[in-house]
TrEMBL record:
The chain crosses the membrane at residues 16-37, 72-95, 202-223, 235-258. Binds 1 zinc ion per subunit. Its cofactor is Zn(2+). Belongs to the peptidase M48 family. This is Peptidase M48, Ste24p. It comes from endosymbiont of Bathymodiolus septemdierum str. Myojin knoll. GO terms for biological process: proteolysis.
Length: 337
């Protein structure tokens, strides 16, 4: 496997997806500004004195007003506020998910160290984490054991100094040393490539788009309880709230597609890094084959698993929202087929 070629390809694709994320944020912010301003203009035209004009005339006039010299600044201002609100929500989401230890504990994880390791398998896993971290030239991350029978693993944390690696009991029970080395090296690869921080950023980005739902609800209630607003104007504002909600839903939907696409590229990158650290591609291939051909499951029962599906080594989901490439494709790439 030419892992450096695969690394370069995955990084290039990731940059394209980041560009699409920023573009989606800018477009959604502008659409919110346009919807609010046109809605306000339209509501004004439904006040007494404009009865002779039809809806289409009023709608076109509202758009012309929104883009004239007097209101273009207001349009850009509202769009900027929408951008800032989504940005602040994104920052909140980032801070909420930045502690790797809390993520592991949310899965019921048990910290494994020299004092707490009870079984030969736990001690072996601890040794593998140490040797793979040494191969990758990073501080040794903490190891957590997740009490789940599904075969899976993940890395979490904001930076390599406080990163954690978590493996499920199912992974420890079903993988031999070479296979477990490949799996843990894959997670170490996520840490080295800063995917653990990237995963938090991606989740926060999608979370930031949910701010549009709160904006839609705010517009709805403002119209509902405004006694000075004409009934027809209220209907217009209800429609504006609905449009904002639809924009929010579409933005979150598109964000999740980009999230899944980004996750797939980073999985390829981590696979390539695992080969680089272990210098034994078959270990990772054999681990994949345990799931591909052995009838084993990567499913996790913990409710947090869906939220962190993109961070898992083995994902779940349909074709559109699949956070991981097919195992067969990952095996073929490692074997350079």
């Amino acid at each position: 496997m030419d892992f450096r070629e695969h690394q370069d390809r995955a990084k290039k694709n990731s940059r394209i997806i980041w560009f699409l994320y920023i573009l989606l944020l800018l477009v959604s912010s502008f659409l919110i500004g346009w919807t609010l301003l046109v809605g306000l203009n339209l509501a004004e035209l439904y006040q007494p004195g404009y009865e002779k004009y039809g809806f289409l005339d009023k709608f076109l006039a509202s758009n012309r007003y929104a883009f004239n010299a007097k209101q273009i600044t207001t349009l850009l201002g509202i769009s900027a506020i929408a951008f800032i609100v989504q940005g602040l929500t994104t920052v909140f989401g980032f801070m909420k998910k930045s502690n790797g230890h809390k993520v592991a504990l949310a899965f019921g994880g048990i910290l494994i160290n020299e004092d707490s390791a009870e079984t030969l398998e736990q001690k072996q896993a601890l040794n593998i984490v140490t040797e793979q971290a040494l191969a990758a030239s990073i501080p040794t991350p903490s190891l957590y054991l997740i009490p789940e029978q599904g075969i899976n693993a993940f890395a979490a944390g904001k930076k390599s100094d406080d990163a954690i690696v978590a493996i499920t009991q199912g992974a420890m029970d079903n993988f031999n040393r070479n296979e477990l080395s490949g799996v843990i090296a894959h997670e170490i690869g996520h840490i080295v490539n800063q995917d653990i921080k990237l995963n938090i950023q991606i989740s926060a980005f999608v979370f930031g788009f949910t701010a549009l739902f709160f904006l839609a609800r705010f517009v709805f209630y403002q119209a509902a309880y405004n006694r000075r607003m004409d009934g027809r104007a209220k209907l217009i504002m209800f429609a504006v709230a609905t449009v904002i909600g639809i924009i929010g839903a579409l933005t979150v939907w598109l964000g999740r597609i980009l999230q899944a696409a980004m996750s797939r590229q980073r999985e390829y990158l981590a696979d390539a890094s695992a080969v680089q650290f272990t210098r034994y591609p078959q270990g990772l291939v054999q681990a994949f084959e345990v799931l591909e051909n052995g009838g084993k499951s990567s499913k996790m029962e913990n409710p947090s698993s869906k939220e962190y599906a993109h961070a898992m080594m083995f994902g779940i989901g349909g074709e559109l929202f699949a956070t991981h490439p097919p195992l067969k494709e990952r095996i073929n790439r490692i074997q350079n087929k």
